[in-house]
Amino acid sequence: MRWAASGLVLALALALAWAVGAAVSQGRVGPSDLASLPGWPFAAVPCPTPDYGPLEEQLRRQLARGVAREYGLYFVDLPSGRSFGIYADRPLPAASVVKIPIVLGLYQQIARGEATLDQRVAYDARRDYEGGDGVLRFTARNGDAFALRVLAKMAISVSDNVATQMIIRHLGRGRIVQYMRALGGRCVYPGGENLSTARDAATYLQAALDFQARYPVLGRLFFDDLAYSIYHVGLPGELPPDVVVAHKEGSLEDVANDAGIVFCRRPFILTVFLHGVPGEDAGFRHIARLARLAYDYQMRYAPAPGR
Q1: Annotation: CATH topology of 32-300
Q2: pLDDT digits (tens, 9 = 90+) for 244-258
Q3: Which of 96, 129, 108 lies closest to 180 in space, CA to CA?
């Protein structure tokens, strides 16, 4: 992922995490409420189900333009449940998109009463340190303790790799693998590698929606973090600024991925994995174009405003 290690950015990210922890301790869980978003509940407003063949063909042509050496895409129309994929079962580097099921697994543990939002985990530099994205690799000292809610927030909103490693250690890697498979994941750390598929990423997002319906407070925390990440250039890149996109980007040197839910008047899931891109910026511009094509198609068949 993109990360500028400037003092200002570090300070802002840490202030963000602190503010979230303070809000949780005071009982304030964040601004978004899925029930107030366009199209929720997704099947409440009758609208015709379109033929998705033309959209699939548009996306297939866009993907074939040579930006990525290999790719996978999965689309789900949430009101109807209609879906399609383009190389959707091809295993590709997941990068930080894997943080979706990891953090969702943490919230599931909290929902079961096996942990609490304010339960603390101590940083173990020998086991938890990881380079790349985040602020804790710069600021955490061995033995510093962080609330699970703060770690979850940082793992999603600033894609903090140390926070993610601390969550993995807290949950146990084996339990995470079992949880991802229980959700329906088919490509789960094959051979120990962080590989996944576009279809699996969409499966985890659908599981997040199901979780939110059952546990609204915890689910709202999770969706707030997805919607208000500091990384917001992939799926939302060409969409109107008032459209809420709950998503998780992931990137490596030649990888650009994004998986999310676009809450327009006809909401949809879109997951895109690109491998072999000439640079992550080019990759995310490509993802933004794909999302815009899907958004424009959905809006042609969306219910009228106010319905």
Answers
A1: Beta-lactamase (3.40.710)
A2: 999 999 999 999 999
A3: 108
